[in-house]
Amino acid sequence: MDWTLQLIVLGDAAIAMVLGGAIGFERELKNRPAGFRTHMLVAGAAALLVGLGQLVITDHRLDGEGLTLDPLRLVEAVIAGVSFIGAGTIFGHRGSQVVAGITTAASILMVAVIGVMAGFRYHLLALAATVLTLLVLAAVGSIERRMMAKVKDNGSDATKR
Per-domain residue ranges for the chain? Predict the structure, then answer.
């Protein structure tokens, strides 16, 4: 097998890990249950699984073995694996009336998808999805906190009347 193809897959995984790390860093700064390393590893693993599938498809040593491979099945496997990690971030914080960790679970799903995009070599799409995810986590979170503060302020004004 050609080493250059393997290096390309490794490069795709590195790109995925950098992009996943950017999202993980944001989660780490907010002291969330899954942070920098987790997000990097999930994105890298997703890219490697997709890349490995592509390598297996082109590996002529396996010709005549009756091997069939559907790249979308690899994506399904990534999503199934990420579901367990996401569930762990949610269940890890269920001790009170409030369910915590859902946004982090969603960010883990996003970095898995970003890893899949990088694995399929849709690097621009992966970068754009990373930027959009960071915007949602940072900007939308800030807007949401301001709106909730206004609702609480209006509620306390109503009780004073």
Answer: 3-131
Q: Name the band, by pLDDT with cuts 50, 70 and 90, for residue 45.
A: very high
**In angstroms, rounded to a whole number, what is the distance separating the alpha carbons of residues 107 and 84?**
14
Distance separating alpha carbons of residues 41 and 87, to the nearest angstrom:
17
State the DSSP code for 118.
Answer: H
Only one residue has tokens 């700064």, namely: 29
AA letter at 88: G
Helix axes 102-119, 3-29, angle to 10 degrees: 160
Distance CA 126, CA 114 (A): 5
SS3 assignment, position 59: coil
pLDDT tens, position by position, 47-104: 999 999 888 888 777 666 666 777 788 888 888 888 888 877 776 545 566 667 788 8
121-132 tens-digit pLDDT = 999 999 999 999
Distance between terminal CA atoms of the chain?
Answer: 77
Residue 44 structure tokens: 């890298």
Q: 3-state secondary structure string, 33-52?
A: CCCHHHHHHHHHHHHHHHHH
- Whole-prediction pTM value? 0.82
